[in-house]
Each structure stands twice: as C-alpha cells, then as structure tokens.
From TrEMBL:
The lineage of its organism: Bacteria, Bacillati, Bacillota, Clostridia, Peptostreptococcales. Its main location: membrane. It comes from Terrisporobacter muris. Residues 10-206 form the ABC transmembrane type-1 domain. Keywords: Membrane, Transmembrane, Transmembrane helix. This is ABC transporter permease. It is found in: Membrane. CDD domains: TM_PBP2. It comes from the Bacteria. It is a multi-pass membrane protein. The chain crosses the membrane at residues 14-37, 49-69, 81-104, 140-162, 189-206. GO terms for biological process: transmembrane transport. PROSITE patterns: ABC_TM1. GO terms for cellular component: membrane.
Amino acid sequence: MEVIEVIEIVTRSLYVTVIATCIATIVGVFFSIIIYLNNFPFKKTITTIVNSLMSTPPVIMGLIVFILLSRQGLLGKFQLLFTSQAMIVAQVFLLIPICMSLTLDCLNKFGKEILDTCKILQVGKKDTILIFIREIRYHIITVIIATFGRGISEVGAVMLVGGNIRGKTRVMTTYIAQSTSMGNFDESLMIAAILISISFVSTYFIRRLQRDE
C-alpha cells in the first residue's frame, strides 16, 4: 500500500466526519435547546424517540439513506449515491440523535438555573438561546469531540452508501474491514493504529475540556 493512498484514505475519512460532525452539532444543539425551552404536546415522546435513535444500528441508518438516494428515492435526482456526499448524509443521520441526546441530558441537568436567570432578567427568546449556547459551550465542545469519535469509527452505514470504492469513497474503517477479510493484516493494523491515535487525541481533548470546565 502506497503512502499516497494512506494519506488519501485518512484525509477522506477526516473530511467526511468533520463535515458530518459540524452539521450534526449545529442541528442537534439548536433543536435540543428549542425542545428544552418550549412546552408542547408529545415533548417527552420526542425526547424518548431521540434517545432511542441513539441505539439504532448504523446499517439501518445507512439503508434509509441508501433508499433516499437511490434512483427511485426522494433524493435520487441528485445522484449522490456512492459518493463522499452520501457518506456525509449517512453520518449526519447517525450523529444527530447522539448529539441531541447528549445535549438534552446536559440541559436537563443544568438548564433550569440558566433559564431562571434569563426569566429574572426578562431576556428574549433569541437572546436566551444565545445565552444557553454560551453557558454550555464546554459541553458543546465535548459533544463535538464525542460525536466526531463516533463518526470516525463508523463502518456499516458508510460502506453501504459509499460502496468502499478505491480512490473515491474508501475510508479507514471500510479499508480495515476489506483488508482483514482478504487477510492483509499488516495493512489493517497500520490503518487501525492511525484510527486509534485519532481516538486517543479525541479522548485527550475531552478530558482537558472537562478539567477546564
């Protein structure tokens, strides 16, 4: 395996996961705060559904995205199947419930004090959302890193919608799966070492942020 190919695979993995993590975090944090600040019918049901989606097998999310992006699917006209964009979409579907669940858990623990302060100061709803984001910023960063760690290790969904095409949609996890099945353990271990290193760096930042907070 050439060094250029290794760099390409690692770069593509980071590209897909970083973009998916950013989208999932923005959507997940925003809607989590909206859900927390508003009382409406079926609020508990929605929270339960979000928490349940955390345990949904990734391959199921991949199947849903595959159907949506297939020629007969709702988004088939965009011809995104077996592209990096399809892998990003699959990861976003997978990561949003994780991000929302972690953020809602934080809000349920610390949100009441923030909300009471906003009510006393008679802060408007838009400013309240901004205050919440500022007050839980350390948690949001922790959520970003945790979500990134989950996305970078994903294999089932990205293999299904990406196809593990060499030079196009092959990422670290799909390469490890393929190489192991072919008996190329040395190459699998090399990519696995890079993946583990990324995970260790993510864990290090989580602990640093927790100490700073």
